[in-house]
Amino acid sequence: MAEAVRVTALSGIPHGFMTRLGGQSTGLVGGLQCGFGAGDDPAAVAANRREAADAVLPGAPLLGLHQVHSADVVTVTDLWDDDHRPTADALVTDRPGVILGIVTADCAPVLFADRQAGIAGAAHAGWRGAHSGVLEATLEAMERLGARRPRMVAAIGPTIAQASYEVDDAFRDQFGPSAEKCFAPGKPGHWQFDLPAYVAGRLRQAGVGAVEDCALDTYALPEQFYSFRRATHRAEPNYGRQLSLIAVA
Q1: What is the pLDDT of residues 213-229, one digit of tens each?
Q2: What pTM value is reported for the model?
């Protein structure tokens, strides 16, 4: 049976950060594998995505994206099917009864809401997307629909944590002084990067009213979550993706 992590910041709003528990996928990506690039059985992926969506808002349509680590945002007005997903890394909508979904496997899934305005958003924020402005672009798209940043809440879902995320000097050099606190010294020439803290910092700096981090490490919890970096370290040929969902009730 599908399992969703829910957060206080989004209480009363249909949402969920799905784990890998449940689902119909088997083998290396066994469980509730919801990504299209995992070499998985398409029928199992479709069934898993429906199971995940029904755990958030039963029977509602689920809209996803072809994600590419960009800062591009789609404002949902019409529905599309999985074979016609737009290329972007965030979605926003004021349309009730439509589920917004993004997949991740270490990157930060961020769910947004302005309850008063009836507007929701979802963003895929790996370090590339966050660094290039996908979070701020999502906020701007929500504002164009009538949301206001002081009223917004943002929840950061299961993400690779600092203890599991080793990077080198060249990686760190891409970030400015404002991100220094997100890097802890590691072995010579290396650092431990705190992606959730970096995402939270950008959200707060952008004026989001409340930010909550669920503080779950995808790398360190293999029974609950898929992880790109864990699969890479294990020399596994592929990896699964978990789905994060939100809707305007």
Answers
A1: 999 999 999 999 999 99
A2: 0.97
Report phi then psi at 135, rounded to 5. Answer: -70, -50
The DSSP bridge partners found for residue 190 are 168
The two structure tokens encoding residue 21: 């528990």
Please tell me the total count of domains within the chain. Answer: 1
Please give the pLDDT value at position 37. 86
Which range of residues forms the domain containing residue 176? 4-247
The first and second tokens of residue 38, run together, are 């995992």
Provide the CATH number for the domain around residue 57.
Answer: 3.60.140.10
Contacts of 212 (CB under 8 A, 6+ apart): 7, 8, 9, 10, 153, 154, 155, 156
What's the DSSP call for residue 181? G
- Rounded Cα–Cα distance for residues 137 and 52 (Å): 26
**What are the residues whose beta carbons fall under 8 Å from the beta carbon of 167, sequence distance 6 or more?**
183, 190, 191, 192, 193
How far is 104 from 225, CA to CA, in rounded Å? 10
